[in-house]
């Protein structure tokens, strides 16, 4: 079997995920592509994943 070697210089980031914690119930999850600086996102805490089902806003700042 042939083998190739890759390093970090060969790596490209395709999706960024942001850790989110619901301010109502504390449920935690990852949100993909919610990472534009200065943007406010409306998120939903999913009841199907043991969340509370409430909506809330998340402001993203990379600083």
UniProtKB/TrEMBL annotation:
Name of protein: Uncharacterized protein
Organism expressing this protein natively: Paenibacillus gallinarum
Source taxon at top rank: Bacteria
């Amino acid at each position: 079997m042939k083998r190739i070697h890759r390093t970090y210089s060969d790596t490209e980031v395709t999706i960024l995920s942001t850790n989110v914690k619901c301010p109502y119930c504390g449920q935690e999850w990852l949100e993909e592509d919610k990472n534009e600086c200065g943007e406010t996102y409306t998120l939903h805490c999913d009841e199907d994943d043991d969340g509370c089902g409430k909506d809330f806003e998340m402001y993203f700042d990379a600083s």
